[in-house]
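Structure tokens please, single chain.
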Amino acid sequence: MDVKTLCLAVLSKGQATGYEIKKAFEEGPFSHFQTASFGAIYPALARLTAEGMVTVTVQAQDGKPDKKIYELTAQGRNAFLATLDIQPAPNQIRSDLLFLLFFAEHLPPTRILTLIDARVAAYTAMISQMDDLNAQGNCDPGHQFVRGFGRSVYQAAADYLATHRDTLVAQVSEQHHEAAE
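Here you go.
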């Protein structure tokens, strides 16, 4: 999805500042399956405002820069709803961890263990966060479905990493030993 559509999606849930939109992708409802940077969000909001898809209200703050609050217009809501009819692109996994592990033969075994163990811990924390949100029980069916899917993916990834880490380390250690001889 392009960032304009992502901004429209967040605003479809209610008005928000650029910071709040960013937070929706860092730790909010979209954090497990979409990303958007400040460097992309603010230009997208400017374009959406110019196109009449969002309005902006400036709120003065004492000792701070003015706060800009964005809200979806009827045109913006219609544009967002139209995006729900598109055929989604295939999922892509972009992972710095997988990139590093692809070159595991060049890494010390301790680095591999550190990388994998840290990721398993991060996945476990995300699963716990999702379980806490599910326990609150106050979300739409789509939110609950997507959260359940995300939880399953994180659990499967954590299980795979934990189950296969020692094998990878043993294979890399053997390669290092053979190269040293």
